Structures are given as structure tokens and as C-alpha cells.
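Service request form, structural biology core

Requester: graduate student, group of Dr. S.
Request type: structure prediction, single chain
Budget code: on file
Notes: please return the result as C-alpha cells.

Sequence provided:
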Amino acid sequence: MSGFIRQAFEKRARVVSGLTLEEAFRHGAQQSITGRHVSAETSLQVATVYRCVRVLSDNIAQLPLKIYRRDSAGQRQEARDHPLWRLFHKRPNRLMTPFVWKQTLFSSLFLRGNGFGEIEYGGDGWPAAIWPLQADGMNARLERRQPVYQYSASIEDAAGSNGLLPDYRVHHVRSLSNDGFLGRSVVRQAMHTLELALVAEEFGARFFGQGATPGVALMHPDALSTEALERIRKSWDERHGGVGKSHRTAVLEEGMTVEKIGIPPEEAQFLETRRFQSLEICRWFGVPPHMVYDLERATFSNIEHQSIAFVQDSLMPWIVNHEEQIQMDIVEREGYESDVWVEYQVDSRLRGDTLSRYRVYQIGVMYGLLSRNEVRAKENNPAYDGGDEMLMPANLRPMKQVLAEQGEEPDAGDGETREVRNRPSEQRQDDVQELRDLWAQAAELLQERLEGVVAFETAAMLEALEGKSLTEFVRWLSGFCGEQLPQAFAEALALPIEELAAWTASMVVESLGEEWTTEIAGRIQEHAAEVLEAEANGYAASHRRQLEALLRDEGAAEGEEAARIAVEERLLEWDNNEAQKRGRKAAFESGNAFSVAAMAAVGISMIAWAARGDACKYCRALDGKTVAIGEDFVGAGGTVTSEDGETLQVSGRRGHPPLHGGCDCGVRAVRES
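Core staff response, request fulfilled:
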């Protein structure tokens, strides 16, 4: 045991707050060992306590608290028309936001064991506001199994002259309790731990600030009188005491010598003691050490799972406690609706990393466990028409059904029904349409991601345009479009493109009756990275060329100011529609590229153009055209002639659709006979 700890524990016990020992233990208090009084307020001087309370209260306060009811079909619906919806979701009282109200309630709960609120009722009989009440000012007790609340502060129109509040006007949340009515304060239960933390902090301050341990001893050859001893000590302390005087030159007289005294090992242990006390406080509050910035045992591989465990093990008990108390104190009072309940939304805090979530969604949607709208709701995205329809793989069918269609009988000795895959000679038109539907959904997601890219891009360009000459802007534009913009594009679209590649390739492989292998998955993943890089560089290069052409043409014709205005107008145009246009183009262009790559991966060498039913006349002219994979349907600079003899010139080579803006054609795999 270190020296300062030994000194602390050598002090005799004192009674807290003037209570007798019997009264102290009856009220859940403990004897002070160090003589340091620990209260809810003084405990916040310990950094770990302050951080634990903030972590718990802030994490719960930021969760939405919503009201639900069952509809006629038994499905839960958010009850936005209910009087309590605004109370919990918008404004608990006229002075506080929901976050502040919940933070205040839970900080009192964590420090004092109880959180109180006064319920203010409106003219319609429903609660119109909830006002926090200080737990220190509340005398709450049970009398003949009836709750009695007596508040020391006067509350207008609520408490009588004696401060009594009727229980229906009190929202009372408690922590761990002996009697189920009053909660026990963590601060009071952890008093010894917090005392030691405060003493260690004080010792450290004195040790470094005032030199609590002497660094030197002054040796004198003769015996000194008491007056001489005090004079020398005072003179030395005035000149050399404290951190600010630690390196002054010492002048000795009368044969005096200086002997340096090192720090005793037991005294140097206080830093280790403080670290241990921090961990102890985390245990008391149930907060993982990494949440209070103690990363000694945290790694990048486990910190995400620690955070999820924090929600499940540390937050959820408090959340359920509060939900049930609201239900009892407010929602289910006599005469209130019984089919309404409150619920904290914790799904977002339990989600893993983005890639893991998307893979789970993929499995869920592919095998009919989740609808696409359910996935979008989990990601806080709006639903769309047709998204509630459940999907299943098109070419996975029971063996009995396949054999029945072929006029054969299943093997009676097989004993089980197995799933088999067809190997069609040509990929069906229905399969191509299914891919189009997938790409249309992907276009919406890519559009959402691109909106952020466009916002970043236009903001950066407007700022640079305003603060630079046109010559400087052109140089800046070259660097921005060469590095920052492609990087922003790639970071925003990496996961959607990767998932689009996996979905497209797996659907193509299944539709062809082939097996999905890790080798195919690896090839598709590599191809997705190449497509993403090409899309990012193409996007940035296109925008750079457009702006450079505007600056060159407008500047030469109308002058510098006209050139700046032209650039600003183009940026505004991009801000309005570029994300939608580029999102659709990227989805269908990438989707077709992944289709062709998947076909090549399973040995397909020939593909056919597949136009949709209401395709334009130029796309219809290409419908059914067959080429080898790697060859062009239309060469660079080539033309496509429609049935009526009109031609469309194509700027670049087309090894797969789209042919033009708005084209949503696809390709079919063709097996060589």
C-alpha cells in the first residue's frame, strides 16, 4: 500500500452529514474514511465520474423517444396525432428540448439514484409539459403503501403550503432499490472509491505543485537552535520551494551541504492508483473504459463490439426502466388509451459497420427475409413504390418441380427434396428485367450519395472562384479534379458500387444456372474497384473540362466577369440535377459492366443487346444484336440507324449499354451451340 493511501486509511471514521452511525447506514450512507465529504456535486470533480455521467445521460438523451399504437391490421404505427407525441418528441416543456430534458433527468438518476419530474396537465386532460425537479429537494416516502412526495421548493399550482405533490403529478424514475420505491445513489454506494480518487488527485496536485515530498535535505555540521533551524528552512523554501523556483542556484553557508532525496517508490505509485480508481469508477457506472478515453485495452478490432455491448448491457436496462415508468406514470393513467406505448429508438446504435450491415441486408432481401423498404427504413431512407414486395432468387426451384416439368419421376430413394438450377441456352428476358429493376433501385441510392459529393464539390469551387484570379482558379481546378474530387466520389460511392456489383453478378450467375464461387466473387470485387476508379476519374475529368471550356470561351468573348458568372451558373445547374443524372448513369453503366464480367467469369463468350419494351428507336435497332464479349456493339464515333432511317452518332465505343442518356437497356448471355 502506498504511503499516501496508508495515511488516508489511518484516519479514523467520521459520520457523514451529522447523522448517527445507525441513521447513516439506514439511509444507505457509509462512513467516511479519509474525511473527504463526497456528494453528488463534489463527485463531479472526479473526471471519470463526470465523463461516465455524460456518456450515459448523453447517449440516452440523443435517442428519439417515439409514441406507437396498433392499427386495425395489428401493425404498429407511429402515433404522430397523439397528444403525447409532441411532449416526448418535440417539446417536453417551453424551456427545454427533448435532449436537455432527458439529459437532466438521467444525470440526476445516475448521481442521486432518483430522477423526478412534475407533470403539468393541459385543458384536454393530457400532460402538456414535464418539469424536472431536483432530487435533493424531494422527500419521497411510502406511507401505507402509498407514495408521498414532499418538495422543499414551492411549485406554483402544484404543491400545497406543506410542499406535498399528488403522485399523479410526479414522474419518478429510480435506480437499483431496496424497497422498489427509492433508488440507491451510485455516488453514495461508491463513496470509498470516490474518496480515494479525490485524495489521490489532491495528493498529485500537492506533490507537483507544492513539493509535498522534499527533494533535498540540508546538512549542517553543528547543532542549531530552534530559531536558526526555522530561519534556514524558511529561507530555503522561499527561494527554492514550488515548481516555479525549482532550478534556482543554491548558495550555502557555514559548512552546510545538500543531500538529494529521491521519490520513495511507494509515493510514486499514486499515478497507478489513480488509473486503477478510474477503472473502478467505470465499473460502478457500468461504462466501458474506452468510453472515458482509456484506450489502453481497446483495439480497432474490438472497440466496435465494445460499443455495441455498451448499448446492450449499459444503456438498455436504463432505457427499458424509463419506458416502463413513462407507461405507468403518464400513458396508462386511468382513462388513457391502452394501445399506445412509448419506445426509444436504439437500432442505429446497435448497427455494425456499413459493409457488414449491407451484406446482412443482401442476404435478407435475396432470400425473402426482408423487403427493400424494410432495409431502407433501417437506413432512415424513404420507401418507394414496389419496395414492399418480397423477393426470392428466380432460378432456385425444388427438384420435384423441375423433374415434373421434364416428364421424369424423382428418385424415390433420394429421401429428400433438393434444389437444382437450370442451365438455359440463353438468358431469359425476364432475368434482364429483374436486373433493370435492381439498377433502378441502385440509382436512387447512388443519387443520394452523389448529392453529398456535388454539395462538397460546388461549395469548394465557389469558395475558390471567389478568392482567386481566373488563372489561379484554373490551376486550383486541375489539382482539385485530379485528387480531391475523385477521392470524394470514390469514398461516397464505394459501398453502393461494391454492393451493386455483388448483387448483379450473383443474380446473373444464378440465372445462368451456375454456382457462385469465391473465385467469381473475387474477380467481381476487383472489377468493382476498377469500375469505381473509372467512374470517379471520369466524373471529375468531365466537370473539369466543362469549366475550363466555359472559362476559355466566355472569357474570350465577354471578359472575366462573364466567365465567373458562367461558372457559377454551371455549378448551380449541377447542384440541381447532376446527382440524379449521374446516379442513374452510374447505376446502369456499372450494372451492365458487372453483368458482362459475371458472364465472362462463368465462361460465357457471346452477349446480345436487350432493349426494354418501350425503348427508343435507336435502342430497338440494336435489340438482339450479338457480339463476342470484349467486342463493341457500336464502335467509337459510329452510328446507329433506326427503322425509319434516322441515325444517332455515338461519341465513344459501346461494349455494353447504355447507348445514350436515359437508356436502360441490358445484355443477355448467349451460349454457343
